Amino acid sequence: MKKMLCVMVTMCVLIAGCQSGSKCEQAGWQDLFDGKTLQGWKPSENIKSFTVKDGMITADGGRSHLFYVGPVNNADFTNFEFKADVMTMPGANSGLYFHTKFQSSDWPSQGFEAQVNNTYASDPRKTGSLYGIADVLTAPAKDNEWFTERIIVTGKRVVIKINDKTVVDYTEPSDAKKKLSHGTFALQCHDPKSKVCFKNIMVKPLP
Questions:
Q1: Is the pLDDT assigned to residue 18 strictly greater than 60?
Q2: What are the pLDDT digits (tens) for 101-148?
Q3: 10 Å Cβ neighbour count for 158?
Q4: Contact 131, 99 (CB under 8 A)
Q5: What is the CA radius of gyration of the chain?
Q6: Residues contacting 80, CB < 8 A, separation 6+
Q7: What is the value of pTM for the model shown?
Q8: Whole-angstrom Cα distance, residue 106 to residue 87?
Q9: Listed residue (177, 114, 159, 122) closest to 141, CA to CA
Q10: Under 8 Å between Cβ of 198 and 54
Q11: Burial of 136 by CB count in 10 Å (0-12 exposed, 13-18 middle, 19+ buried)?
């Protein structure tokens, strides 16, 4: 009886642990940012535009892109689930690139951009847009508040979520001019007036 009771208690603890979400939900997730340094990341032009402080990466300065070049999956992802906590300052523009590769200057020519823009007035494409392909015209998040942007790529499908709400669900058509492929991730510093912070940057590679 004691042995059976012990087993039952253990099962209850395990079930409760899964329901709480902490360990079960984190299964398969890998950190891309250590919260202290830019180790595993490589900036393009204007290397001082990205700094680390208080557990976050701040993009603040001239145009630059910070590419992931670290060891996770050899920095080459095809199918994956990516997420980052993001906070924009008023009037800021930025982006999260995927299926891209390092280039030393200019806007990334390879890959796709998940937009970060809540109040940058001169671009109607708002946060969560699959830039230029499936655009969101009303910002689903606010400046000065942390929000989670999640990108899920499986085969020809891209899903973008803001705070767990799906804002884009795109399936690549056979005649698409730009094709989903593979590559790494990049954070964007758009311009000197666009200050954006990133933390809890994680990926879950998928089959």
A1: no
A2: 999 999 999 999 999 999 999 999 999 999 999 999 999 999 999 999
A3: 22
A4: no
A5: 19
A6: 73, 98, 151, 152, 153, 203, 204, 205, 206
A7: 0.87
A8: 24
A9: 114
A10: no
A11: buried
Residue 159 buriedness (CB in 10 A; 0-12 / 13-18 / 19+): middle
The span from the CA of 44 to the CA of 19, in Å, is 42
Residue 77 in contact with residue 88, Cβ under 8 Å? no
Percent of the chain with pLDDT over 70: 88
Domains of the chain, with CATH numbers?
Answer: 30-205 (2.60.120.560)
Residue 6 has pLDDT above 50, yes or no: no
Task: Identify each DSSP E strand in the chain by its residue range.
Answer: 30-31, 41-43, 50-53, 56-59, 64-68, 80-88, 93-100, 112-117, 147-154, 157-162, 165-171, 184-189, 196-205
Residues 143, 93: Cα–Cα separation, whole Å: 11
| Cα–Cα dist 139/135, whole Å | 11
Q: Which residues contact 192 (CB under 8 A, 6 or more apart)?
A: 60, 61, 62
Q: What distance in Å separates the CA atoms of residue 23 and residue 71, rounded to the nearest whole number? A: 23
Partners of 134 in beta bridges: 130
Compute CA 160 distance to the chain's CA centroid, rounded to the nearest angstrom: 10
As beta bridge partners, residue 100 has 184
- Smallest CA-to-CA distance from 149 within 207, 77, 82, 203 is with 82
